[in-house]
Amino acid sequence: MNAERIVERRWWVAVLLTFVGNSGYLYLGRPRRFFLFSVLAIVLSVAMSHGLWGVLASRLAMILWFLAAGGISIWVVAEQVLIARKTRNYHLRRYNRGWVYVLVFVLTFLVSSLAQWLVTGKVFPGNAVRSFAFPSGSMLPTIEVGDRFFVDMRRYEHDLPQRGDIVLYFRENGGDRWYASRVMGLPGERIQMVDGNVIINGVALTRERLEPAEATTSGEGVPTYREFLEDGTSYTVQEVSDNSSGDNTPAFEVPLGHYFMMGDNRDNSLDSRFEPGPVPAERIGGKAIWVYWSRKWSRIGANLD
């Protein structure tokens, strides 16, 4: 009869197996905690992919989520360190084998992928929220050059873009480069610019001059306006003049399945007023949420939703 092996458990091995192979608690001889932790990890993974990010789209909810996730991670690490230090003379179980840990990793991946497919119809749904850095001034003053912001990439899987949404999209012949603009015209609408005013289906949007003029990134003060949509939603745009090439346009008929985009920096935005025109719905990737990093500290946390 073979003598039972007695070994010491190392906390760093447990932590590594938890965050790489999901079997840290199994390594420590806690199969019940391992099962609960595995189920929780799979449920959260599926929930995040299926649309929980839609609930977490606000700044406060997302911050609370990251704090909660960080707190759980710290708690798991602390508990495993304590268990490992208390377990000086550990009797190896049958499941304490290297191949078992590998098998657990593979099975967890397969079960998670199956759950993803059953819920979302995709094995690899992709990132629900992505981070982007804005390289141009076409959305000044709302988004400044160098701003980094989160984008909800699942927002339009079940919902349609609404007027006023800031969206990321691909342009025709634009390669794999993302562009950001504000949705101004919806499918089937008629939109036109007259002396810098937006005319939608024959009705002009209200705008009010703001004072003092806000400064651009080049330091030049330009006239800024508060523009109001029909539902009362408002945002800030800037206009150097009301006589540039994009301030007086013919009337555009927005095709079905397309959206008319405009930058908030009305005189310095290559948008749907120019070629190739309105953007097909399938080229829209997601909706901007909020700025998480900026060269100006006061802009961190600015809401774009």
Relevant terms:
305 residues, Umud Fragment, subunit A, seven-stranded antiparallel beta sheet, four-stranded antiparallel beta sheet, elongated
Fold and architecture overview:
- The protein folds into two domains: 6-120, no CATH class; 129-299, Ribbon (Umud Fragment, subunit A).
- The protein starts with 5 loop residues before the first strand and ends in a 12-residue tail after the last strand.
- The protein has 305 residues and is an alpha+beta fold.
- It has helices at 11-20, 24-27, 31-55, 59-86, 98-120; strands at residues 6-7, 90-91, 129-133, 148-152, 166-170, 178-185, 190-194, 197-200, 203-204, 206-210, 224-228, 234-238, 252-253, 258-262, 279-280, 284-293.
Order of helices and strands: EHHHHEHEEEEEEEEEEEEEE
Structural class: alpha+beta
CATH superfamily of the largest domain: Umud Fragment, subunit A
How much is the average pLDDT?
84
Number of β-strand runs = 16
Strand ordering within the main sheet? 3-4-16-5-6-14-15
Label the CATH architecture of the largest domain.
Ribbon
- Structural domain tally: 2
Q: Estimate the strand proportion.
A: 15-25%
Tell me the Rg in angstroms: 26 Å
End-to-end CA span: 68 Å
Main sheet attributes: strand count, strand direction, barrel closure: 7 strands, antiparallel
CATH class of the largest domain: Mainly Beta
Individual helix count: 5
